User: Fold this.
Amino acid sequence: MNPELFQHYPFPNKLPCDLGRYRLESVLGEGGMGIVFRGHEVGAGAVRFSVAIKVIRFELLAGSPALAADVIREARLAAELNHPNIVRTQYVGEDHGIPYIVSELLRSEGAGLAGRPSDCGERAAFSHASKIY
Ligand SMILES: Nc1ncnc2c1ncn2[C@@H]1O[C@H](COP(=O)(O)OP(=O)(O)O)[C@@H](O)[C@H]1O
Ligand SMILES: [Mg+2]
Assistant:
């Protein structure tokens, strides 16, 4: 494992902290693969609006040396997709062996994004999914 990984990893209790071009401010949510932070770009020429920054889980990165490269390859492919029903990937970066994926910040009410598929039911979920091609 890259020994710098632990030192530079943006654990939620270390916020705010910088990762590559971005300053991470708070946690938006967590999934199986990553922790998603709210943050913004820093440095010369930075844009100031808030974005979502997904960072792959520390334990996954630390346990699998090939994962970082796989994640970056997949995220770059995803960044080529442009569709109203797909969250747009804005940037894919890596800092000290930690890959991160920047996308537009989605604002949600109530149960949040994680609650949406179960909220809308199987038929509506299929109807949404069938429009993505
Ligand atoms: N673009 C975004 N804007 C706002 N919140 C987000 C965004 N992406 C993810 N999240 C939050 O982070 C959680 C985990 O994201 P998800 O993409 O499911 O991660 P994983 O790939 O690890 O499953 C979501 O349920 C949501 O609450
Ligand atoms: Mg998920």
User: Anything to note?
Assistant: The pocket of magnesium ion (ligand 2) is lined by residues 31-32 (CB under 6 Å). The first strand starts at residue 17 and ends at 19. The chain has one domain: 17-130.
